[in-house]
Design brief:
This protein has eight helices and no strands. It has 99 residues and is mostly helical. It has one domain.
Length: 99
Amino acid sequence: MPRSEWKSNPGLGLRKAIARLIARRVCYWKQWRLVRTKVRHLLALGVGKRHAILTAISSKSYWRMSKTLATQVGMTNQWLKDQGLTSVRALWMKAQGYA
């Protein structure tokens, strides 16, 4: 992508930030390799038993599973922050001098 297109499309940065946020969930989902591990962690995060089991046994890709309701409910932005991950938006705001 040419550099001029980056400047003319400010929404591109936001889409990349969202992609990075989803990528964080992908990393955790990959880390919990076994079905029983996924179920145990999702239940601990407050996801319902049915959703946890159905999500854990799915054979969909990591990227697709990171966007499901169960992972979004369980792995909230606050939970990711508590795990020590920094928000891409917060870093951008700090770099731009807003915060």
